[in-house]
Structures are given as C-alpha cells and as structure tokens.
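Dear Dr. H.,

I hope your travels went smoothly. While you were away I took the liberty of generating a structure for the chain from your last submission, since the lab meeting agenda had it listed for discussion. I wanted you to have the full record in hand beforehand rather than looking at slides cold. The sequence, exactly as received, is reproduced here:
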Amino acid sequence: MPGKGDDANDGDPVVLYASSEGAVVQWHPDGHGGSPMALLVWGGQLFLGGKAPLAPSILIGDIARGEWVDYVVHAPFSRSAQTGFAEVYRNGAVAVPMHARANMVDHSDYLKMGFYRDDPASATAVMWADGMRVTAP
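The corresponding predicted structure, in token form, is as follows:
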C-alpha cells in the first residue's frame, strides 16, 4: 500500500473493450472518499484523473479497442502538489508529461484495478490486464 513519499511505477499491458464510462485503475484512499488519482474511460478515451484537490483530468489517448497497450504511471505519492506529481507513458512514449499533482487525500492509498462505474450501465465493458507491477524506491 503506497504511503506518503512512496512511488508507483506501474507497467500494465491492458486491452480495453469499453462501451461505457468508468474507472479502470484507482489509487484509492485508505479512509473514505473518492480516488485522488485514477485512470478513467470517457467517450472511448483514457484519462488520468481523480478527486484530489487541484488534480486535473488529462487525456492519455484513445483506448485502442482490442489492442494491447503498455501503460506506465509514475507518481510519487503526496497530499501536496508541491511534492507530488504524475506522468504517464503509453507504449514507451510520454502521453501525459510530468505535472505537479496531489495524489493522496489520506495517509495511504491502495490500488484497485477492474472496471468500476457509478451507473448500473447495461453495456458490457471488458478489460484484460497482464503483467501488473508496482515498484517503490
């Protein structure tokens, strides 16, 4: 479970067949509240988003339905945008440049992976993941 100052560097080959919207990866607070940082699917696009204060939602790119895509999220965890940041790589290329971001709201976060959506959407959403890695300094 990442705590303050820990670093997440996830290399996740992922295939998405998503016809609805939701979160596919969340760094969820240990306490209550929404995920301060998440990978979100909206309208066939993948975004780095979340509910941390002043944390923008930034486009990563098309979900590339039916293709294996390797995502790396590099983010040292912090409740402050002065010390926290995030950057995302897609198939080895920078998709979201490094930017200041608070990515914690509690004393620690835990990783959730799957297709999470608020609405009881009837459309089928499929996500395949392989090779998940979480590393720390």
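Two observations you may find useful: The chain has one domain: 7-129. The beta strands are 7-18, 22-29, 37-42, 45-49, 58-62, 69-76, 85-90, 93-100, 109-116, 125-129.

With kind regards,
E. W.
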